[in-house]
Amino acid sequence: MLVLDIEHNLRRKSRRFYFDKRWLEKDGVKEVIERVWTLPIEGSPMHRVSMKIKACRMELNKWSRTQMLHSAKQIEIISKAMDEMKEEGDQRDWQKWKELKALLDKAYEEEESYWYQKSRNSWLKEGDKNSKFFHATTVQRRKSNGIESLEREDGTWCEGEQEVETEIEGFYKELFASEDKAGWEETLDGIPCTITDQMNTTLIRPIEDAEIKGAVFSMNPHKAPGIDEMNGIEVQQKAKYLGLPLVVGRSKAQVFNYVEDAVSQKLKNWKSNLLSMAGKEVLLKAVIQALPVYVMSCYKLSDNICDKMERDMANFWWGEKEGKKKMHWGTWEKLAKDKEEGGSGFSRFKNKNTALLSKKIWSLL
User: Fold this and answer.
1) How many Å apart are CA 161 and CA 146, to the nearest integer?
2) What is the enclosing helix (H) or strand (E) of 130?
3) Phi then psi for 124, rounded to 5 degrees?
4) Which of 15-19, 54-58, 77-81, 128-132 has the lowest mean pLDDT?
5) Integer Rg of the chain from CA
6) How far apart are CA 217 and CA 213, in angstroms?
7) CA–CA distance, 80 with 78 (Å, rounded to integer)
8) DSSP label at residue 16
9) Residues contacting 260, CB < 8 A, separation 6+
10) Which residue ranges make up each domain of the chain?
11) Alpha-carbon distance 132 to 144, whole Å?
12) Crossing angle of the two packed helices 94-119 and 131-145, in degrees rounded to 10
């Protein structure tokens, strides 16, 4: 027996505009932007810029529908054509084979570029055949950003897109609703003023064109601007200054355990089986080894913490997971040697800690 729910209606979501950087390689995109940008629009300069950007978005969406931009579909079509040519053996048209091979390589590059942009990864570059990793990162981020259910104030749960949306909307309507304003003056009188007249003048001064240009051109061209996030070691619940604890007691090992925890947590968030050895090397050198640099330039970390961080890096390098041991085909001491000596050029945390502290001492002499 087949049961159909004919009343169930899924709402069609309005998708936000997404500038696919693969468009820059296509013919005609420059002409679309130039044509829209020269349209006469009345109003203030900021209004004209806003309207032109909106018009560009609409025209680019129309233009993209006329283009063959689905690189995954292109890969499927070209691969099928090449498989058919393989059956012809040496009698195949080698010139056509060469052309198809070039198109296939281009399609793979576009597919990787697409998923790199969607994954929002900044530490790993394109060109290392990491499309599978970028795709997995994007799927993981979408799952973590989704809200499947919410607990109401009365303890009950709401599930489903419509119920969750209604609950969130009602919460913020009540939160920002106007209340009795009586007595606000007395309350505000007891709050000290921390903004000086000079600071207020600076805050309300007109923004110069050079500042706007500097802010716009400092953004990552392939990423959307968002809320500022701290890089490096994450902030603990206790107060820290520039990522450091304000008070260091006798047990430095207990105080600085968060450094090793940050390294361990960072590595757990990455799927090592989806990365090539070159990709792992970039991650470990550019991200992981940079995490404790500021702490090591101010304090001497215990040998135990340094050994734990290197052990975590070694497990990630050889693809070891929780509950699943992997063979380590070389010690970390050998991997830390220069590449000319047969190693991979990784740093030893103990040596780096000593070097950073020595640099501080040298500056005092």
Assistant:
1) 10
2) none
3) -105, 130
4) 128-132
5) 28
6) 6
7) 5
8) P
9) 305, 308, 309, 312
10) 13-69, 78-144, 241-364
11) 18
12) 30
The mean per-residue pLDDT over the stretch 89-109 comes to: 79
DSSP symbols for 266-315: HHHTS-GGGS-HHHHHHHIIIIITTTTHHHHTTS---HHHHHHHHHHHHH
Percent of the chain with pLDDT over 90: 0
Q: Give the integer Cα–Cα distance in Å for 95 and 74.
A: 19
Distance in Å from the first CA to the final CA of the chain: 87
Strand 157-159 and strand 240-241: the pairing is unpaired
Secondary structure class of 113 (helix, strand, coil): helix
pLDDT of residue 180: 59
Between CA 86 and CA 292 the distance in angstroms is 53
Cβ atoms 330, 321 nearer than 8 A: no
For residues 284 and 346, is the Cβ–Cβ distance under 8 A?
yes
Q: Which two tokens stand for residue 274?
A: 């989806």
Angle at 309 between CA 308 and CA 310, to 5 degrees: 90
Torsion of CA 154, 156, 159, 161, to 10 degrees: -10
CB 141 within 8 A of CB 119: yes
Q: Please name every residue paired with 157 in a beta bridge, in sequence order, or none if there are none.
A: 151
H helices within the chain, ranges in order?
29-37, 45-65, 71-86, 94-119, 131-145, 161-175, 184-189, 197-204, 209-217, 252-255, 257-268, 277-283, 293-296, 303-317, 332-335, 349-364
Nearest to 345 by CA among 313, 297, 307: 313
Number of other residues whose CB lies within 10 A of the CB of residue 116: 24
| Total residues belonging to the chain | 365
pTM: 0.36
Q: How far apart are CA 159 and CA 165, in angstroms?
A: 10
Structure tokens at 315: 């497990």
For the record, the structure tokens of 161 come out as: 């897109």
pLDDT of residue 226: 44
For residue 310, how many other CB atoms are within 10 A of its CB? 21
Dihedrals phi, psi of 289, to nearest 5 degrees = -70, -15
